[in-house]
């Protein structure tokens, strides 16, 4: 009879547990924060950048109706200037506007000491079609020099479909209304004299006894 093999000895449960440490649990990962969609408060809203350089306000290009007045305004930053500026206005590149340009052109300058801002103005009264074109303002102060260009466009008077100026039509219609209902006596007298010339003398000069 074959001999029975001895059963394998099992290791104590406690020793196996000590030999194999339990795996550590990974710490839970935090989900990335979603970007905020809330609008920033009004006091924290981004503000527009302040203009830099000597021109705080550049002269605007304008379109003016013929016969109307216009004013071109520019503001200069005195903090960027080494001294009081000398301002000149030009039409085109070299035609300087000044006291000799005529009574329609005038110039105005003012200085705000608190903000150190210079305000310069070009006034043109009763603009004509010849004023249309490119202009330039030039600023000089010691060794400093800067300029800025702008344009003035002059519109001709409005016209109807027949090409007649509405303004002239209005004036002619007003003149006709003043004389409406009046007879042209000079024309009537001329017609009467012409008709009497073809009649015999006896008919042209009535007798004393005629009624």
TrEMBL record:
Keywords: Repeat. Residues 1-61, 161-181 are annotated as: Disordered. GO terms for biological process: sarcomere organization. InterPro entries: Ig-like_dom_sf, Ig-like_fold, Ig_I-set, Striated_Muscle_Regulatory. One of its GO terms (cellular component) is M band. The keyword Repeat applies. It comes from the Eukaryota. It holds the Pfam family I-set. Residues 1-21 have a biased composition (Low complexity). Residues 55-143 form the Immunoglobulin I-set domain. This is Immunoglobulin I-set domain-containing protein.
């Amino acid at each position: 009879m074959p001999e029975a093999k001895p059963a394998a000895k099992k290791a104590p449960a406690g020793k196996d547990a000590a030999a194999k440490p339990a795996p550590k649990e990974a710490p839970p990962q935090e989900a990335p924060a979603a970007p905020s969609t809330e609008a920033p408060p009004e006091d924290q809203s981004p503000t527009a950048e302040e203009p830099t350089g000597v021109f705080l306000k550049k002269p605007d290009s304008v379109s003016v109706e013929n016969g109307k007045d216009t004013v071109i305004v520019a503001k200069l930053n005195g903090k960027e200037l080494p001294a009081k500026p000398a301002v000149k206005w030009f039409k085109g590149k070299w035609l300087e506007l000044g006291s000799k340009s005529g009574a329609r052109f005038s110039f105005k300058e003012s200085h705000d000491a608190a903000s150190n801002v210079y305000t310069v103005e070009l006034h043109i009264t009763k603009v004509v079609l010849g004023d249309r074109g490119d202009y330039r303002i030039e600023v000089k102060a010691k060794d400093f020099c800067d300029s800025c260009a702008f344009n003035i466009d002059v519109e001709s008077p409005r016209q109807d479909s027949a090409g007649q100026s509405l303004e002239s039509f209005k004036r002619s219609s007003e003149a006709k209304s003043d004389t409406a209902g009046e007879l042209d006596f000079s024309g009537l007298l001329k017609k009467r004299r012409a008709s009497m010339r073809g009649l015999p003398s006896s008919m042209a000069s009535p007798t004393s006894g005629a009624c």
